[in-house]
Amino acid sequence: MPKTRLVAPALAKPGRAGATGGPRVAGFLLAFTGSVFALAGCGIPVVGQGNLALRGTEDGMVEASKATLAKRLIVGFSTAPSKTALSQIEKSTGTKHVKSIRNVRMSVFEASGDVRKARKALLSTKGVDFVEGELLPEREPIKMQMEPLLSLGITDDGDPNRKDQWYLDTIGAPKVWEAAGTLKPVIVGLVDTGVDLEHPDLKPILVEGWNAADPGKPPMDEAGHGTMTAGCVAAVHNNGQGIAGVSNNAKIKPVKIGNSASSMVEAMMWAADNSDMISMSLSWKPGMPDYPGVVESTKRAAEYVMGKNVPMACSMGNTGNSQRNVPSAFAGKEVPNLIAVGATDNSDKVTSFSTYGPWTTVSAPGRSIMTTTMRGRYSRVDGTSFSTPITAGVMAMMLGKGMAKDPAVIRTKLMNTAVDIEAPGQDDKAGAGRIDAFRAVME
């Protein structure tokens, strides 16, 4: 890599999806199998920190500490309460109203005393549908063998590590690039840990995003995960360095979430309001020690996305069993047109780590995926985290070719054109099969 100083664009977005929230990195189950990178909040080493001196506008609320978030509860209502009703709830439950999230009938309250008592009081309040913890649950990442980070060379043209991207040929992406002609640009809302805004293989395809973790700052990646998923979708083609993303027409809108359930909800909503489609490689296991988890709040956010008619791909997770990770577990029945993506390997087999269930929509390559990572570097990684943006890249080309921006249409086409690799027809492991980019875009 040349020793060129790259300046990140000012990508902070002052607008909000409802209220605002967010710290720096979240404690959630990243849908990739990694031990070298994970979340700073989990006490696990971070690959790179990026240029955190970059600042955006100072509009919005910075998320509270984890200790404070642990005292907070996110409450779902049947109908949005008035200011008077919120004040009455504060008095009757011994809580303080922190904020409300428009359009999804949710509010955040902070307990002044015992959190369990506050939760019980809120649950007994008329018009309350659910009460969940505001602090997102933390999960240990699944360990894997990962190659060292690579600083790839530069050539006069092409992408020097294109030869290591076996997955592009497996799904037929290069055939689309050759046959489809010029595709219209499509904005992909990448709901994740942010993106390395200075990465030379990503910077040209980034557009203004939003930091739900800290609305006053750009969505700079501190964990590395979002930078990896961004490269799968849309790393720049034929720029003489690194790799090529699946799509040649996608623009990435980084939407960074924080440690709170409300920041996750707001990030999904903001992405739906400001993007053509969404890729989300984050998932949560239902259940927490004291609270129901983040099931209902995540579901409402996913319903909001579908209500906006925005196609969305989400990762199944890497548990290797039928655990109901959310939001992917909502696909099929509860939030019908979500696209839940499992992982396959270079032998066209479902990987041993890929979570499965009747909600699996399709599968895509997710083992030994060469992609971008922090500080302008690259690595091979595993996980449904990467199957998802690979699928999102295909979805971006489908939209760019003129397919209707309709979640049901995109989902059905992906399923009908997939390569059946497991039991005949729809199955729990591979869904409808491994995605076929050429058929999905060109037929």
UniProtKB/TrEMBL annotation:
Residue ranges crossing the lipid bilayer per the database entry: 27-47
Coiled-coil region list: none
Keywords from the UniProt entry: Hydrolase, Membrane, Protease, Serine protease, Transmembrane, Transmembrane helix
MF annotations from Gene Ontology: serine-type endopeptidase activity
Occurrences of domain Peptidase S8/S53 (ranges): 186-433
Pfam family name, one: Fervidolysin_NPro-like
Active site: 192 (charge relay system), 225 (charge relay system), 385 (charge relay system)
PROSITE patterns: SUBTILASE, SUBTILASE_ASP, SUBTILASE_SER
GO biological process: proteolysis
Span of domain Fervidolysin-like N-terminal prodomain: 72-132
Family label: Belongs to the peptidase S8 family.
The protein, known as: S8 family serine peptidase
UniProt source species: Candidatus Tanganyikabacteria bacterium
